[in-house]
Inverse folding.
C-alpha cells in the first residue's frame, strides 16, 4: 500500500537530523584542545579558520613585497606620463604656431634694424656737449665737470658715456634733466647722486648733482675718426664750465 505523498514528506522531515546552531564558546574551546602533532585530528571549523588566517597572511605579505612596490612604480609612471603630456602639449603648441612665431621674429628683426638705422653714424660729441651746456644754462645750473669717458662697444652699437657734475637746486636739476630728454640725440640717464655739501636752515640749500648719461652710435664709424673728434669735445666741455 502506497502512502500519500504528503505523508511521505512529513515522515522525512521527522527523520531528518536537526541543524545545530553555531556555539562560539564551543568553537573557542576547540582551539584549547588542539593536538599540535596531529593536524588531521583538528575540527573542521579550526582547520577552516587556520586556513583563512594563512591565506590572509600570504595576501598581506604579497601586498607588502610585490603589490605595494608595483603601485609605487605605477604612481611614478603616471607622474612621468603627465610630465610627458605637458611637454608634448607645449611642443605641439609651438609647432602649431611656428609660422606665426617666425613672422613675429622677422618683424622684430625688421624693427630692430630700423632702430639701428636711426642711430647716428658718429657720436658728434662736440655738438652733444654743446647741447648739454646750453641746456644747463637754460636751467640755471653751474657745471663743475663734463667728462667724456671711453666708449663701450656692445653687440649692435657703441655706447658713449658722459659724466656730468653740476651745482643747483632741485627745481633746476629737474628742468635740466627734462631738457636733456628733449635733445634731438638719443640720451639715456643712469646712475645719479644728489648731495648737500653744506646743510643749513637759513638759505635754500645748494646741491651737487653727479649724473651718468649715455649716447649711442652705430658701429660703422672707425676708431680713428672718433679719436679725432674726442679732443675738441673735451675742450668744448671745459669751455662750458
Amino acid at each position: 500500500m502506497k502512502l500519500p505523498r504528503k505523508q511521505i514528506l512529513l515522515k522525512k522531515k521527522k527523520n531528518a537530523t536537526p541543524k545545530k546552531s553555531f556555539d562560539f564558546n564551543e568553537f573557542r574551546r576547540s582551539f584549547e584542545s588542539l593536538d599540535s602533532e596531529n593536524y588531521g585530528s583538528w575540527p573542521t571549523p579550526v582547520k577552516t579558520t587556520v586556513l583563512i588566517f594563512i591565506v590572509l597572511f600570504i595576501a598581506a605579505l604579497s601586498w607588502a613585497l610585490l603589490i605595494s612596490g608595483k603601485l609605487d612604480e605605477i604612481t611614478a609612471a603616471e607622474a612621468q606620463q603627465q610630465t610627458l603630456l605637458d611637454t608634448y602639449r607645449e611642443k605641439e603648441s609651438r609647432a602649431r604656431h611656428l609660422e606665426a612665431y617666425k613672422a613675429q621674429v622677422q618683424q622684430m628683426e625688421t624693427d630692430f634694424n630700423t632702430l639701428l638705422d636711426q642711430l647716428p653714424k658718429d657720436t658728434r660729441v662736440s655738438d652733444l656737449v654743446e647741447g648739454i651746456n646750453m641746456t644747463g644754462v637754460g636751467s640755471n645750473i653751474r657745471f663743475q665737470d663734463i667728462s667724456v669717458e671711453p666708449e663701450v662697444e656692445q653687440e649692435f652699437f657703441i655706447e658713449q658715456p658722459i659724466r656730468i657734475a653740476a651745482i643747483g637746486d632741485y627745481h633746476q636739476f629737474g628742468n635740466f634733466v627734462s631738457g636733456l630728454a628733449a635733445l634731438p640725440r638719443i640720451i639715456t640717464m643712469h646712475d645719479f647722486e644728489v648731495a648737500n655739501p653744506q646743510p643749513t636752515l637759513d638759505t635754500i640749500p645748494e646741491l651737487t648733482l653727479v649724473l651718468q648719461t649715455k649716447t649711442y652710435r652705430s658701429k660703422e664709424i672707425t676708431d680713428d675718426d672718433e679719436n679725432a673728434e674726442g679732443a675738441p669735445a673735451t675742450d668744448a666741455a671745459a669751455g662750458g664750465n
Residues 22-96 form one domain. Residues 44-96 form the longest helix (53 residues).
